Amino acid sequence: MDKSLYDLIVIGGGITGCEAAWTAASRGCRTLLCNITLDQVNLPPHISALFIAEKDIERVLTDLGGGIFLQALRRSLLGVFSEPNEPNAVISLDKREFSLVSKELLENHPMIDLRQALIGAAHIGDNIESTSIFGEIFTAKKALFAPGTYVGGRIRVGKSVFSAGRYGDLSSDELKKVFEDQGFKLVEWEGKTPQVVDMRRVNMEGWRELPPAGAAIQDIILGRKDIPQVRMKAFWRENQGNICYLFPLSSKTREAQLHQKDGGRAPSGVMDEKAVVRDSVEHSCLIVGSAAPNPLKGLAFAGKFAGKNGYIECALDGRDKALKLMGEG
Amino acid sequence: MFHVKRYDWDRKYQVVVVGGGHAGCEAALACSRLGMKTLLVTINIDKIALMPCNPAVGGIGKGQLVAEIHALGGEMGKIADRACIQARILNRSKGPAVQALRVQTDKKFYEDEMKKSLFSAERLDVLQGMVGEIVIEGGEVKGIVLENGISVGAQALVLATGTFLNASIVVGEKSYPAGRVGEYASYQLSQSLKKARIELDRLQTATPPRVDGRTVDYQKTIPQLGEEEVEGFSGKERPLLPQMACFLTYTNRETHRIIKKHLHLSPIKTGGVKGRGPRFCPSIDRKIINFPEKERHPVFIEPEGWRTKEVYLQGLTTSMPAWVQKEIIAATPGLERARMMRPGYAVMYDFAPPQQLHPTLEVKEISGLFLAGQINGTSGYEEAAAQGLMAGINAARKVQGKEGIVLKRSQAYIGVMIDDLVTKGVEEPYRMFTSRAEFRLILRSDNAINRLRPLGHSVGLVSDEEMEEAIELGEGVNAIIEELKVRKLAPEAVNQVLGSKGGNPAREPLRAIDLLKRPEVRIKDLAEILPKLRERTPRELFQAETEVKYAGYIDRQLRDAERMEGLENSVIPLEIDYDQMKELSFAAREQLKRIKPRTLGQAARISTVTPADIALLSIYLKRKEIGDTGDT
User: Fold this and answer.
1) Which CATH number is B464-556 given?
2) How distant is the Cα of A198 from the closest Cα of chain B, in angstroms?
3) What was the ipTM of the complex prediction?
4) pLDDT in tens, B593-629
5) Which of residues 190-229 of A touch B (CB under 8 A)?
6) B30: Cβ contacts below 8 Å, ≥ 6 apart
7) Among the CATH numbers 1.10.10.60, 3.40.50.1370, 1.10.150.570, 3.40.630.40, which is that of B570-631?
């Protein structure tokens, strides 16, 4: 059996879990970070862009300074734009590159051990013993759960509903039982991911290029001035009173994400069906509700599973919860 | 279940390819390049061209397949060359027929490069989705229905679903349904295939654990460096990444003691893994059972790419419980402190016994349905890609109303593989070896371009420019051989070449070609005194050298192939009624009815068919031929 005792185990290698692991490890904690697969770590699940109010940029980036989210973001930027008619900056990123850079950073951190494991059970005693579905036991003094949408996750696409943590990935119903057994109240959450289209098939009539952000904003976001500012163009158009965006997904494929400002799927008519590469999926999973008992000692929930939403909010939550867990000890 | 109004499709394509692995990528690219409006459907676009097992392409038998894929206009060779982080010629000390290129690849880089090709191919759309049902009417493929209810009409369908059909993965006593770790498998598609009366059976395969490269003690291992100057599979593309080293260690008595001690927990002992596994790529548990006398087994520590610290432990494949895997690793020199990042595991999956296929890879009973890759019971990226390419070519030709392309055993390893599959079926995941090819001296990697590029060109996958390359290669080789024939070397020149090599010094003038036939003489030695040779490329020189040195053997294989040609060209009509042929043995008749061989040659390779049966068949065919003539 695994005899090594970690200071912290983080379950879930998404934005929340990675930030939490990085925060703890950077302060000297021996940290084990488990993800369902190592083929993909820290892959942003939703849109390939961030919206930040210009007035908040400096504060947000300071809060995330030194963290893995910001480092990976800076190394996977496709462009920094201004949002039309709004005082917001739009940061477009290459999701795959973000994920690859994150994995590199994590693997090179001397205090982080990255591990492929689907956690199916946890025993909470003096230490926390987490058991993988393969029967491996990982022991840590503390645990931070950031399983995102993988707890009891289901996907609805068209007429069909099936168990999935994300499209293509398994979900963990076992983990759901662990939390229920501990007396946590779980509530169902639902969300949608935008469609992805093949840029070659998009009729660009009516679409306009997003203007680059001003130099000052670029400098804050880039952190360094020698990074190319716009590597891929992003587009927008008005669509039935709303603004619709087209963000490149990666510099390597010709995929772009169709994002409706008010959320959800872009109305029909904007895109030819044959342009669609990945359908919009509705997603539900269980998250820890407000009626949860006081978290057990040494245990924390963070990110989407704790009801947070948005990349920045999740990264900040991962960081805060990790700091709090460490402060307890 | 789904209800589709007849021919009322949401989308329509000429060819739909299901699966984004190595078979699916080649099939989709081939179809789109042959002018087909093509759709590639995959469960996860982020995992296209993933290498779920070893970080390498090529090897003995497999390297020849990749060279042939490239010669025919496929993609794998080019991408492997670009993603190469180490190239080695295996069996360099042996004869040219069994030499093979194997390249270590950067896995993520490979995926990215393949995706670039897919997303820049004309007429090719990619769609993320899972297939729920195949629509078949009147014995013909009509299309598919995705899980989201979208229906896609297709004139031909290529299924390249890998290990995802009705799959579950196993570690120790634990098992759960999944196509690969963390990814759900496809169950409806298996059902749909059964409904279409396609016979399915079970196979299994496994992958070794990966460990954290930071925790390996490389001092205790033997570095394995690549070769400095190697032409890749394509002879054109260069590695786009710096090269990396692999490392070699060996298991020892302690490793074996641990394995033996816990053997009762191995799924191959407990029955946790059902279905047959790859005998030629055995797990370490299997090796300990089968070779109890061996004191050690090699373990190659291979990097998975530049951007990861994960390393692959080739030789330690196992699906023993994870804690046993840990002990096995820790007992192996250099890996004492190695930290496991991914445990090894086995996967069991459905496959369709390939005797159900025509040699074009089309299902005999369902027109327009082609199967490629692991679904046909093979193992390996290269085997999959080669079938994908052929299924893609033949799907496109089916739509175009052209006759399918079937490669002969004397023409290509791909031909050997497909003939083996459809004639003999598989008892275990089929892996290519040079020993499977009876004409391996004429089926070399170095002459794959000469052998197959004209076919690729006439099919339409090879550009004029690329064809020109093949012609130039052939001409170059001929020019070298001509030069060797006409140049008579004075004894002094001969002895200069022989130098310190030993061998009988010459007293008479000697033709250069005869000198080259001496085992100790290499063509590069002759190039020192024959300036014309120095104008030639390494590839031309290598091929000329092989042709000269092995001329006798090559001629014999060519003659054998020609002799076989008679049987291979005797076409058996599909409508033949074996039940009418009472003289055939019962076993032969049953197998002939099942396999429906296309030629007498193929019939002769069916295990229950005896030479006497072939003689009967041959007489029957001749009589029929005469009879037909008599009728007109």
Assistant:
1) 1.10.10.1800
2) 8
3) 0.94
4) 988 999 999 999 998 888 888 888 888 888 877 665 4
5) 196, 198, 200-201
6) B73, B74, B388, B389, B392, B393, B396, B461
7) 1.10.150.570
